[in-house]
Amino acid sequence: MIDAFLEQFIEMTAWEMTKPKAYGPFHLIFTFVGLAISLFAAYLLRNTGEKGNRIVLFSSGAFLMLTEVYKQLFYFYHMEDHAYNWGIFPFQLCSVPMYLCVIAAFLKPGKLRDGMYAFMTTFNLLGGIMAFIEPSGIVHGHWTLTIHAFVWHMMLIFIGAYLIASGRFAKTWRDYRGAVFTFLALAALAFCINCIFWRVSDGGINMFFVGPRDSSLIVFKQISKAAGWYVSTLLYLPTVCIGALIVFLPAHFYAKKKGMIEK
Questions:
Q1: 194 with 211: CB under 8 angstroms?
Q2: Residues 6+ apart with CB under 8 A from 65
Q3: Phi/psi class of residue 148: alpha, beta or left (left: φ > 0; alpha: ψ in -120 to 50)?
Q4: Is the pLDDT score of 173 beyond 80?
Q5: What stretch of H or E contains 146?
Q6: Contact 97, 64 (CB under 8 A)
Q7: Cis link prior to 109 (omega < 30° from 0)?
Q8: Which residues are paired to 59 by β-bridges?
Q9: What is the mean pLDDT of residues 11-21?
Q10: pLDDT score for 139
């Protein structure tokens, strides 16, 4: 009965659309309006205390989880005809914040929570920004999937902006190293997931794009085909770290200028 209800609900919301073009009206309007709302909300929440911070993080993580459930059901019932698509297993780089936000909301102040904050204000903020710069991965042939992808990645920008505005961000080089360590640990876990579910997914799973399946990312896709997934992965990991470094540096210099870094 529940299964029939869920399938009926998904089918009722499976509104088809023409994929929005990169830098077309839909993409540009959503990007600029979404950025304005996200940055304004982050600004309003800049003085949030510890209790309020936990509420913001938990609410953000819960929202992401709820929308991810919808996406998983949409693929299962409408896109894959009651089969699971392992390519959307929820453990990509941009999926991680829905777990980290909820976990961090219950953690006491310390290195573990600081590492999560540092990760979300560098790597995840980078992921949200890159999704709108190169939007091929967030446009779909259905309204709900496209809106989900756009809102999801805008949420990554909001979470990163909120943590920065409230002073809970990667300020020091030690913070950046913590973010890199978190990223590498998650990438290693993703690789284990890929190996564990390799057979059942028929080689269709590739969390964090670290293999053993060839990368589907632009540039790295060609590297994988030419030199193998392991070469692509060895180049991909430091490239992402450099991208996160570019995001980290302005925040680092800002914190330094404002005297937020202890000497």
A1: yes
A2: 98, 102
A3: alpha
A4: yes
A5: helix 143-165
A6: yes
A7: no
A8: none
A9: 97
A10: 97
136 in a structural domain: yes
Determine how many CB atoms are found less than 10 A away from the CB of residue 261.
14
Residue holding tokens 């309003």?
A: 44
Report residue 137's pLDDT band, with 50, 70 and 90 as the boundaries: very high
Report percent pLDDT > 70 for the chain: 100
Q: Shortest CA distance to 94 belongs to which of 46, 148, 58, 16? A: 148
231 within a domain of the structure (yes/no):
yes
The answer to whether 180 and 244 have CB atoms below 8 angstroms apart is yes
* CA angle 76–79–80, rounded 5-degree value: 60
H or E segment and range at residue 220 = helix 220-227
Question: What would the two tokens of residue 116 be?
Answer: 């999560």
Cβ 121 vs Cβ 183: under 8 Å: no
Question: How many domains would you assign to the chain?
Answer: 1
Cα–chain-centroid distance for residue 75?
A: 19
Cβ–Cβ < 8 Å for 89, 193: yes
Per the structure, the complete domain to which residue 233 belongs is given by 2-257
Q: Is residue 226 part of a domain?
A: yes
For residue 131 the two structure tokens come to 């999704």
Q: Distance (Å, rounded) from C-alpha 113 to C-alpha 110? A: 6
Flag whether 263 is in a domain.
no
Query: What distances in angstroms separate CA 210 from CA 129, 166, 181, 220, 243, one per listed residue?
Result: 21, 33, 16, 10, 17
Structure tokens that stand for 137 in this block: 């991965």
C-beta of residue 171 within 8 angstroms of C-beta of residue 252: yes
Give dist(CA 21, CA 8) in Å, integer. 30
Predicted local confidence at residue 260, as pLDDT: 85
Q: How many CB atoms lie within 10 A of CB 118?
A: 28
